[in-house]
Design a protein that fits this description.
Layout (H helix, E strand, L loop, with lengths): L3 H16 L6 H15 L3 H8 L4 H15 L2 H10 L1
Helix pairs in contact: 1-2, 1-3, 1-4
């Protein structure tokens, strides 16, 4: 794998977006719970509690800060916009 360090931030962002009001998909939630428990050893329940009852619009500034610090995702988005 190229850069597994970025993977944790991306999975966190996906889990948070999936937990916000109106976006929950049970299949995605189960996949992320599996990854959390058996692969990354992260605290799925604690992360879920921080995201629940919030809107995607409320949580995106925090996620963008995380993604900007831990990944090159925001740079990728900028490059995609220029195409």
């Amino acid at each position: 794998m190229k850069n597994t360090k970025q993977l944790y931030a991306i999975l966190t962002a996906i889990q948070c977006i999936n937990q916000t009001n109106g976006h929950r998909d049970e299949d995605i939630a189960n996949l992320l719970k599996y990854v959390s428990i058996y692969i990354t050893n992260s605290n799925y329940n604690m992360l879920t509690l921080t995201c629940i009852n919030r809107t995607k619009e409320e949580i995106m500034p925090e996620l963008n800060k995380l993604l900007g610090a831990e990944t090159k995702y925001l740079e990728f988005l900028e490059r995609m916009k220029k195409r």
